Amino acid sequence: MGVRDWFGLGDESKLAQAAGAGDLSLVTSLLATGVNANGICLGVPALYKAVVANHAAIARLLVEAGANPDSPTWTKAVPLVAAVIRGHTSCAALLIEAGASLDVLDRRGDSPLYIAADGGYADIVRLLVLGHANVNLCNATGQSPLFTAALHGYTAIVQDLLAADANYDCANQLGQTPLLAAAMAGRKEVVALLLLAGAKIDHCNDFGHSAVFLAVYKGHVDVVAQLVAASANVNLANDEGCTPLFIAAKRGLRDAVKLLLDAGASTHLSDKSQNTPLLMAANGGYTEIVSLLIAAKADVNQPNQSKDTPLIWAADRGHAPVVQCLLAAKVNANHCNTAGRSALLVAARGGHVPVVELLLVVTADINKADINGETAIYTAARRGHVAVVKLLVAAGANTHLPDKVNPLTIARQNGHHTTVRALLTAQKAQLSALKPPVLCLVKLGRGRYGDVWKSSYLGHTVAIKTMYPSNDAAFLSTLDRAQQLDCPHLARYHGIVHSANGTHRVAIEYVDGGSVRDYLVKLQRRERTSTSTVAVAVAAARGLAALHTAGLEHGRFTASNIFLSTTAVAKLTDYCLDDASLWARTSAPEVLAGSSPTSAADIYAFGLFLVEMETRQAPFPELHDIDVMAGVKQACVQIDPKRRPTAADVLQCLESNAKLAM
């Protein structure tokens, strides 16, 4: 070949160009005139160009004319590798038939068989295996064709490689075998094939990870079950001392925990920091897993290096159901960690009222101090957790402590005025004893004064909210009047379930449909809903009218305090509960200026509520609905309270227009 051909100016160069372009006629003509079949254009042979473009007929002509099947490009790339990378089966078959080298490596050190297995090209893998390619030839990282096929879950390729005696225990540079790769990737069918072939089920990689460990780590519970059924050792720990059970408990994989326990997993094995599976489950708030581990004889008092126990971690995170589960198992409620902190102290520090209540019921040491002399009431006062402070005071916490750890002093320093008032009251009067708390089942969210819990009270499903009004007598009087109301559009108040030092936990009817604020978000996202906006507005107006007829004001009328109901369209909640809140976005101008909330102020808030209803349109909005609400809205948001309609007026207008729309 001359210089002209190499640079694309001679006949050999024309041959290479024609081969790449798929010009069968020109290739045939040039070969007939005696042009060398190994012709090159700019360093790329004609055969390589034909293979890359998948022109199998031209490639065959070139091979039959004497083209070298292993002729490389100037970058050392060969035709077979090019064909395999692109999945060009016909070209690959032709080159194999022509005697191309089957074990040549590309620039990354991958063989054609590895490339085919990695790409999932089962037909090419079969051709290479039949051509006697080395099935155990590994790449630069030590990965074999079987490894990459197992990792990707290419079952047919795995079967062909195993049938060709591929080494199923061949490990890469990190000690990973095909079985570990398949287990980690959740390839259940491949795992079955490898186990059937005799792969070592308990082999661990360089980090100490077994197949069971990796399956648990990635959450592949079905593979865990498969390996457990094949008698895998479930107690093998990695280099950090973590067992599969430890990982399952930490990640909240209940089904995996049950499988491992049934297979004999030890609940006592700990990691290098002496953390146990029970500690990890308690930390994550996984109550069901905690129960499973306790039933399997896990030591509920086993501490870690810092002497933290499952109870301390659960209390610190506010996981009340887990705390209750541990207390039922007779855990030591007064154990302290190396910092001298008990479960009660860390719960008080976090403001976790339900946990504090549970610990007080089992007579946790209320005045126990940590290594700095700080008690539960001090740390709660420092952070302004007034509800916790009131509970601790009612249970007999000592408030007369040195200035360095005095709760009143620190509350004043940090500006927690409500906490200061509570502590001053505690020091002046004999406080009532703590009553057993209502069991809090499910956390619904966090209110202004603490967590809101779903519970059961007197046979009713209720939401438990914590209140500490500034005027206790007025609050109790208003609440008593509110309890007498009987309106389907008002969430019923079932009473006070617990009181201590001016703190009240109120049981309110649990409404199951979510707030109207959430409903409006759905409308904004154009999600379909079955509830009309006018129907919601009518229901809200009926509830407000019932309040005003009884001489009561809502005081906090917002879309967040209206809940959709499967029985009554919508219900108002949180009415009459807060006599001191100012909600800048929904409060009437006169209230923001300092006047007390009135029914007229409620009407102003109702008008703003209609604005919100109007501006978050449904996917197919009814123009009539928007017109109705727009008119009422303008009347409600008058600056002069005397010009606003009454709730009864609003209700009459909405109901009459709603009937016209039906």
UniProtKB/TrEMBL annotation:
<dbReference type="InterPro" id="IPR017441">
    <property type="entry name" value="Protein_kinase_ATP_BS"/>
</dbReference>
<feature type="repeat" description="ANK">
    <location>
        <begin position="141"/>
        <end position="173"/>
    </location>
</feature>
<keyword id="KW-0723">Serine/threonine-protein kinase</keyword>
<dbReference type="Pfam" id="PF13637">
    <property type="entry name" value="Ank_4"/>
</dbReference>
<dbReference type="GO" id="GO:0004674">
    <property type="term" value="F:protein serine/threonine kinase activity"/>
</dbReference>
<keyword id="KW-0808">Transferase</keyword>
<dbReference type="InterPro" id="IPR001245">
    <property type="entry name" value="Ser-Thr/Tyr_kinase_cat_dom"/>
</dbReference>
<feature type="repeat" description="ANK">
    <location>
        <begin position="108"/>
        <end position="140"/>
    </location>
</feature>
<feature type="binding site">
    <location>
        <position position="465"/>
    </location>
    <ligand>
        <name>ATP</name>
    </ligand>
</feature>
<dbReference type="Pfam" id="PF07714">
    <property type="entry name" value="PK_Tyr_Ser-Thr"/>
</dbReference>
<keyword id="KW-0677">Repeat</keyword>
<feature type="repeat" description="ANK">
    <location>
        <begin position="339"/>
        <end position="371"/>
    </location>
</feature>
<keyword id="KW-0418">Kinase</keyword>
<keyword id="KW-0547">Nucleotide-binding</keyword>
<feature type="repeat" description="ANK">
    <location>
        <begin position="75"/>
        <end position="107"/>
    </location>
</feature>
<dbReference type="InterPro" id="IPR000719">
    <property type="entry name" value="Prot_kinase_dom"/>
</dbReference>
<feature type="repeat" description="ANK">
    <location>
        <begin position="273"/>
        <end position="305"/>
    </location>
</feature>
<dbReference type="InterPro" id="IPR002110">
    <property type="entry name" value="Ankyrin_rpt"/>
</dbReference>
<feature type="repeat" description="ANK">
    <location>
        <begin position="207"/>
        <end position="239"/>
    </location>
</feature>
<feature type="domain" description="Protein kinase">
    <location>
        <begin position="438"/>
        <end position="662"/>
    </location>
</feature>
<dbReference type="Pfam" id="PF00023">
    <property type="entry name" value="Ank"/>
</dbReference>
<keyword id="KW-0067">ATP-binding</keyword>
<feature type="repeat" description="ANK">
    <location>
        <begin position="174"/>
        <end position="206"/>
    </location>
</feature>
<protein>
    <submittedName>
        <fullName>Serine/threonine protein kinase, variant 2</fullName>
    </submittedName>
</protein>
<dbReference type="GO" id="GO:0005524">
    <property type="term" value="F:ATP binding"/>
</dbReference>
<dbReference type="InterPro" id="IPR011009">
    <property type="entry name" value="Kinase-like_dom_sf"/>
</dbReference>
<feature type="repeat" description="ANK">
    <location>
        <begin position="372"/>
        <end position="404"/>
    </location>
</feature>
<dbReference type="InterPro" id="IPR036770">
    <property type="entry name" value="Ankyrin_rpt-contain_sf"/>
</dbReference>
<keyword id="KW-0040">ANK repeat</keyword>
<dbReference type="Pfam" id="PF12796">
    <property type="entry name" value="Ank_2"/>
</dbReference>
<feature type="repeat" description="ANK">
    <location>
        <begin position="240"/>
        <end position="272"/>
    </location>
</feature>
